[in-house]
Amino acid sequence: MANFDLMRQLAEPQGGKIVLLVMDGLGGIPFAGGALTELEAAQTPNLDRLATEGTLGLSHPLGRGITPG
C-alpha cells in the first residue's frame, strides 16, 4: 500500500518534463565469439544523454517476477 503522506513530504518541485521510457524485451543474448548483444551494439546517443542528465528509476508495476499480459 502506498504511503502518500510520506511521498508528499519527500517530493521536491522540479519544474521539468517527465519521460517514462518502457524498454520491454531487451534481454538480448550475445552471439558466439564474445560479440555484443543487440542493445550493447546499438548506438544510442540520445538515450545515453538522458541517462547522464536525467534521474533514473526502476518500477515494478505488477510485482517482481510477475509477467504482464
Write a structural description:
The chain has 69 residues and is mostly helical. The chain has three helices and no strands. It is 29% helix and 0% strand. The longest helix has 9 residues. The mean pLDDT is 80.
Would you summarize the structure shown here?
The protein has 69 residues and is mainly alpha-helical.
Number of beta strands: 0
Q: What string gives the helices and strands in order?
A: HHH
Q: Give the uncertain stretches in residue-range form.
A: none
For the sheet with most strands, the description reads:
none
On the 0 to 100 scale, the average pLDDT is 80
Q: Strand pairing plus helix content: what structural class? A: mainly alpha
Number of helices: 3
The percentage of residues in β strands lies in under 5%
